[in-house]
Structure formats: C-alpha cells, structure tokens
Amino acid sequence: MHLDRNARFSVAPMMDWTDRHCRAFHRVITRHALLYTEMVTAAAVVRGDRVRLLRFDPSEHPVALQLGGSDPAELAEATAIAAGMGYDEVNLNVGCPSDRVQSGCFGAVLMERPALVADCVRAMIAAAPVPVTVKCRIGVDDQEPAVVLPDFLARMEDAGVTRVAIHARKAWLQGLSPKENRDIPPLDYDLVHRMKARFPALHVSINGGIDSLDAALGHLDRGLDGVMVGRAAYHAPYDMLADVDARVFGDPHPVPTREEVVERMLPHVEAHLAEGGRLHQVTRHMLGLFAGQPGARGWRRVLSERATADGAGTEVVEAALAEVARRAA
Predict the structure, then answer these.
(1) Which class is domain 3-247?
(2) 96: annotated active-site residue
C-alpha cells in the first residue's frame, strides 16, 4: 500500500469524533482518503485495554493510529502493538493544545522540545515496519514559526520521518482554550508552502481551516503533497468527501448518493447493535450527511431525538431517511 498517495487527502484525527464508527462512515463515502483515529495515549495502548482502544474494521483501510506521548520506549512499544494489530501508519501528536495533553507532556507542548520528539520518532521507526509520521503546529506561544518550524522539520527528517502534517496555526498554550486554538491563532498557509520548498524530500500535508474540496485542491495545485481536513469533513461529510476519489485520486467509480451511503451503513449499525452497542454511537457521526439538502433538519431531528432511546434500532435510521424523502418529494 502506497500511503503517500492516500495521504494526498486525509481526514484529521479529532478527539471524540474520529472513532471507528465515524471512520466506517467516512470510508463508505471515499475509498482512498487516509483516515486517522482519535489520539490515543501510548500509555493506554501499552497498559490499558488495547483491543477496545485500537479495534477497527478491515474496511477502514487505509487507517492510521495517532499516538500521544513523549517517552520513546513507551511510544516504540505502542507502535509495535499498533502495527501488529494491522494499522497502516502510526502518527505522533505534536499539535494538540489541551490542558490534559500539556500536563502529560505530549501534544503541542512538544514543539518546545524538538530533540525529544526526534528521539521518540527514531524509537518508533525502529520498532515497527509501518510508516511513522508527525502532526505538528507551526509553533507555540511566543515562538517564531519561521525560525522554529524549519528546525523542527529538519530534526524530524534527520530522525527518519518522511511525512508530516502541519496545522498552519500556532497553539497558544497559555490563554486560549483548545476550542479557541482551532480558530483564533491566524493561519499561515504560506509558511507551510515555504517549508515544502525548503524540504522537497518531505511529504508535506497542510491542515487547518480548509473548508471545501476546491480549497484543498488549491493547496495541491500549489505544490503541497497532501491536504488534511478536519471539521469540514465531519460537519458536512458528503460535500467534502464525495468527490475526493474522482478529483484527487482519479478514481472513476460512481459516487454513492447520500441515500446509498445510509443504506451501506446499515450492516455496520446492525453489527454494532448485535454486540450490545447503542444506535446513537454510530448515528451521531452521520448527522451532517444531508447538510444543505432538503430534509436535513428532519434527518437530524429524528436521529437526535430517537437514536438515544433504549432499544433504538435501524428503524430509526429508516424513519430519518423517510423524512428526507418526504421533504424532497
């Protein structure tokens, strides 16, 4: 599998969002985009319920695990475990600005410790045959991105990393909440493009504020190797992902309609319910499927009101779909 090709378009790791149900849903819409898990700490993988934490369906391939941590030996062990469970890639989080991440010395705070990050990725690369990648910010707090980012990337490249995803914003660890850190620090797309010119051998993906497929293609046309899309792929998944296979990957396969996406998700829903799972654990990720379409409000309302009920099953999904059909008639 040539993941560099799949990484031309990827769906970002997003806490509380990109779980296995979300990824199964996104995979129905796009065959080729690289999908990322939520961040999982290396400590949890090594010492916790790794089967529950890392479980995924083979249909999700290509799928990458994002790890959080700063202990090289622990990250190496977690990487080996992930590779053994079938993940196609392991990504190190050097971008998450949450307080919980800072207290654990991983995430964006590691932008201040590039030598440690280099030690971590060296250990991870040595531990497993899968690609090891890094997702980072352009800097944190009072760092000067034009100075620290080139140094950081040079250290990553020297440590053996061949692919990075750069969120084109600083993270302010003091004074901004994680939510504010996704919007308030200004985007510096040009800096990321300059990094690609400076490090031509690195596969560079850009992340942050990309809200349409046209915008994503614009970055590819300017010479970046990949685009990583986050919230837009979650809130309006069909608008963002349905044409990715054709326009990014040149795949002529027909695109499933929104209604066909729902039908193709039903076996996943049924399997989850048969294991004792709850309907809303899957359907919460599907609320944006009909965004901007007639019946979108009814779709969301039926799922939001009825999917959390005890015993809710696929009949709720069918009822929500009927609401869309009624409005479209």
Answers:
(1) alpha beta
(2) yes
